[in-house]
């Protein structure tokens, strides 16, 4: 009996040692993950995508991720608005399944299964730093330090589990420094999953002080659709997100009341702008914009010329704000290399959705049109992703969680609605059994910017959208009409493709278990 007990104890001890050894090997093999997400960063403003606007304001550090890994050409969100997109990324589920359908929701249900929770349960140290915007406290993270609500560009408040602290400085720089601090002090015996979420370049596009004048003499190309008349598109005509009609001239465009004035025109949210700056910072801000603002008042312009002036001011500020994000990405990539972490770390750069840079005369997002439906995605993983490949397959933000779990050698839960796109990363080729369509659903109406609720399906060439309250349909041939100007729904010769897309839409709604009240 005594010998048997010793033998049993010895076997348990050996198994424990083997288990520890195996755990160590697994941790060594499993990749670290840095998930970098900005807010409202359009593909058009990332030079790796080659858009004419980005060629005037390149993003060399973000481009490094694509050069060293993959650039996704057909990545899309499931609901083009901040909070819902974040919820979809965390859960791998569409909005109606994760419960966060609108920015105005009561709060994200943090009790549900999420990507960081699963990674945490499988030996990862997890952290999120920066923007959260889900009206709840983060769960599944060993460390979190998040901005209060949208956050402020200057001297913002950060919330932790212990307290709320105001940090002096520019928000993008602060998030970068906090991220590097966490990396330096993390548990070195565990692989890590780190989400670095920037506020920038969210409205109202306040650049870092060093970049106030970065593009003041740059003339950005104006989209061909800037003066769109929205013919045949009821919802597009009803929106309130036009640059030259709906932007707040003070808050958004940094315009003042007159020559040599240090008083902004209408500013509905001063707490998100000047109120957080010190008096000295305010003085330097006005000084940086004074000559350009004076020029607006001293130069006679037609209404069309004023509209074009506003476009240039918008682009100058938006892209100067992006510049700090690009610098931040460069700092993180350099940190990884300097600390020997670059070889076994997956680096992802994305935004919570796309954004309009003057297309259709717009700013903001929400619509299923390409500029806001599409979201940038760049991803590197040395020795696993061939440098410089381009991914053509249809991917979506609900795929991020399954893909990262797959790459981290962790099983994907059955209730996640996304699909791992690991196979697309092998050589950039799209497998024959890959999805042929994507589902989209925007719920927030009535709401800010007056974008009507709608849902739809996108296939390789065609896109069908339905606005249920008005019972209006829109159909686009993306190949012939990439700007989505001509709604061909109901036009001669479109019956067959319309029927095919409506069947595909019903199939997706059934597949994703969309309740009848949302159809």
Describe the fold and architecture.
The chain is an alpha/beta fold and 519 residues long. The chain has helices at 2-29, 52-56, 60-68, 82-91, 95-98, 115-121, 171-185, 234-238, 243-246, 279-298, 303-338, 370-373, 400-407, 422-425, 495-511, and strands at residues 32-38, 70-72, 75-76, 125-130, 143-147, 157-159, 164-166, 192-197, 345-351, 377-380, 389-391, 395-396, 438-442, 454-458, 462-467, 472-477. The strands form three sheets. The chain has a ten-stranded mixed sheet with strand order 7-6-5-4-8-1-9-10-2-11, with helices on both faces. Strands 13-14-15-16 form a four-stranded antiparallel sheet, with helices on one face. It has a two-stranded parallel sheet with strand order 3-12. Helix 3 packs across helix 11 and helix 7 runs parallel beside helix 11 (303-338). 47% of the residues are buried. InterPro entries: Alkaline_phosphatase_core_sf, Phosphodiest/P_Trfase, SGSH_C, Sulfatase_CS. Keywords: Hydrolase. Residues 358-510 form the N-sulphoglucosamine sulphohydrolase C-terminal domain.
């Amino acid at each position: 009996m005594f010998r048997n007990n010793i033998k049993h104890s010895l076997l348990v001890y050996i198994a424990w040692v083997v288990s520890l050894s195996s755990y160590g090997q697994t941790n060594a093999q499993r990749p670290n993950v840095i998930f970098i997400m900005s807010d409202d960063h359009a593909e058009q403003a990332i030079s790796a995508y080659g858009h004419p606007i980005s060629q005037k304001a390149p993003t060399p550090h973000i481009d490094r991720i694509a050069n060293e890994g993959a650039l996704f050409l057909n990545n899309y969100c499931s609901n083009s608005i901040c909070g819902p997109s974040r919820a979809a990324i965390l859960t791998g589920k569409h909005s109606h399944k994760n419960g966060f359908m609108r920015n105005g929701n009561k709060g994200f249900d943090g009790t549900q299964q999420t990507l960081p929770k699963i990674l945490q349960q499988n030996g990862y140290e997890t952290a999120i730093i920066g923007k959260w915007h889900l009206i709840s406290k983060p769960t599944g993270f060993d460390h979190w330090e998040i901005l209060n609500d949208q956050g402020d560009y200057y001297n913002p408040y950060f919330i932790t589990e212990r307290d709320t602290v105001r940090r002096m400085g520019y928000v993008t720089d602060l998030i970068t420094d906090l991220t590097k601090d966490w990396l330096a002090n993390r548990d070195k015996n565990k692989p890590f999953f780190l989400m670095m979420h920037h506020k920038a370049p969210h409205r109202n596009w306040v650049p870092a002080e060093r970049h106030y004048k970065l593009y003041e003499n740059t003339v950005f190309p104006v989209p061909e659709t800037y003066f769109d008349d929205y013919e045949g598109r009821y919802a597009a005509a009803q929106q309130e997100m036009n640059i030259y009609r709906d932007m707040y001239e003070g808050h958004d465009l940094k315009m003042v009341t007159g020559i040599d004035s240090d008083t902004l025109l209408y500013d509905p949210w001063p707490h998100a702008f000047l109120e957080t700056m010190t008096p000295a910072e305010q003085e330097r801000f006005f000084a940086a914009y004074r000559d350009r603002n004076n020029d607006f008042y001293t130069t006679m312009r037609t209404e069309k010329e004023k509209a074009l002036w506003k476009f240039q001011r918008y682009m100058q500020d938006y892209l100067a704000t992006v510049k700090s994000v690009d610098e931040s990405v460069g700092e993180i990539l350099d940190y990884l290399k300097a600390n020997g972490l670059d070889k076994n770390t997956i680096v992802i750069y994305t935004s919570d959705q796309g954004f309009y840079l003057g297309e259709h005369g717009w700013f903001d997002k929400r619509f299923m049109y390409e500029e806001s439906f599409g979201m940038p995605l760049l991803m590197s993983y040395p020795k696993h992703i061939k440098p410089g490949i381009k991914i053509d397959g249809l991917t979506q933000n609900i795929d991020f969680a399954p893909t990262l779990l797959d790459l981290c050698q962790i099983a994907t839960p059955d209730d996640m609605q996304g699909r791992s796109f690991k196979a697309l990363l092998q050589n950039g080729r799209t497998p024959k059994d890959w999805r042929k369509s994507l589902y989209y659903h925007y719920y927030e109406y009535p709401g800010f910017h007056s974008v009507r609720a709608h849902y739809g399906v996108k296939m390789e060439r065609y896109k069908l959208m339905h606005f249920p309250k008005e019972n209006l349909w829109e159909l686009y041939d993306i190949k012939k009409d990439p700007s989505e100007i001509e709604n061909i729904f109901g036009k001669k010769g479109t019956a067959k493709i319309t029927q095919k897309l409506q069947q595909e839409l019903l199939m997706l709604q059934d597949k994703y278990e969309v309740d009848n009240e949302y159809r």
